[in-house]
Amino acid sequence: MNEKYETFTRLLTSIGRGIQKIKTEEMATFGLKSSHFPCIYYLYKMNTLTAKELCDICEEDKANMSRTIKHLEENGYVCCYSRTLKRYQCPIRLTEKGREVGRQICERLDSITEALGAGLNDHERAALYKALAVIDTNVANYTERYESRIPKIRWREIIHRLKHSSSDTPV
Fold first, then answer.
1. Of 82, 8, 90, 102, which Cα lies nearest the Cα of 49?
2. Is the pLDDT of residue 60 over 90?
3. Averaged over 88-117, what is the pLDDT?
4. Tens digits of per-residue pLDDT, 119-169?
5. Tens of pLDDT along 68-91?
6. Residue 64 three-state SS
7. pTM exceeds 0.85, yes or no
8. Is-contact 65 58, C-beta < 8 A?
């Protein structure tokens, strides 16, 4: 196997696992799960977001984000401020309890980020982030070719055809 590939993937996998463990342990201090972290963090930073905006920012699918928001709302961390809009378009804000958790998370993030970057000066850190951004863009560009091979499922068309076909007509 290619040594560059092994080193690259091993390091990224190890870093990803470590970050996941940190999020899990830090959120557990609040009685929350790591999946709740990005929702609280971005709401704290941006004040008000819709579920759709949270999905986009957190790169999370709609179903997972809906479960996260529901849990956080039921436990008093967030509230939806409109009952007239569709749930996915409803503005969501942190409650006082949620803002306090968000504040503590941001404080902890500062110290965690410092600890994780120990041994890097500002120039090295900037070069690392720049390199990671280039790699991220390259991976996104490379994987686009796979997505173009996968046919898009046209659910609306399928449902329409099912609704308007007789039971003995093939779909």
1. 90
2. no
3. 93
4. 999 999 999 999 999 998 999 889 888 876 655 555 556 665 665 554 444
5. 999 999 999 999 877 666 777 889
6. helix
7. no
8. yes
Task: State how far the Cα of 52 lies from the Cα of 87, in Å rounded to an integer.
Answer: 10
Rg (CA), the chain: 21
CA 110 to chain centre: 20
Q: Which two tokens stand for residue 153?
A: 């499922």
* Closest by Cα among 49, 139, 149 to 91: 49
Same domain for 113 and 33, yes or no, is yes
Q: Is 79 helix (H, G, I), strand (E, B) or coil?
A: strand
In a domain, 171, yes or no: no
Helices (H), 29-167: 37-46, 51-58, 62-74, 96-116, 122-149, 155-163
**Is 129 inside any structural domain?**
yes
Cβ atoms 106, 94 nearer than 8 A? no
